[in-house]
Predict the structure of SH3 domain-containing protein.
Amino acid sequence: MGICWFSKQSVQNEQVSVRHSDIVEEGEAENKSIQAVALYPLHSDNSVILNFEAGDRLIIEDDNDPDWYLARHINDQKRGFVPKSYLVQDVVGNAEYVYSSGFFLFFR
């Protein structure tokens, strides 16, 4: 996984486009959801970018773009685009994640 760095100004000027090739019924989407944990905080004034803190849990709704996910917060349902390098997919399941000294630790 690489590290993505960009300035606040570049995010504001960037046009983000993700094609939605697969439309899924809402109930079906919940069953097929992929959960992820944010590695870094992301704060943007761009309304299409999802704002979150490191350690926040997100649901990936669309991963067709090579660089961006369409995701939503697991609790408050806010949606937006997230650079793929900012998330790690949750392959452990319902583990508890702790962010410490630049590393994520998880406990079952």
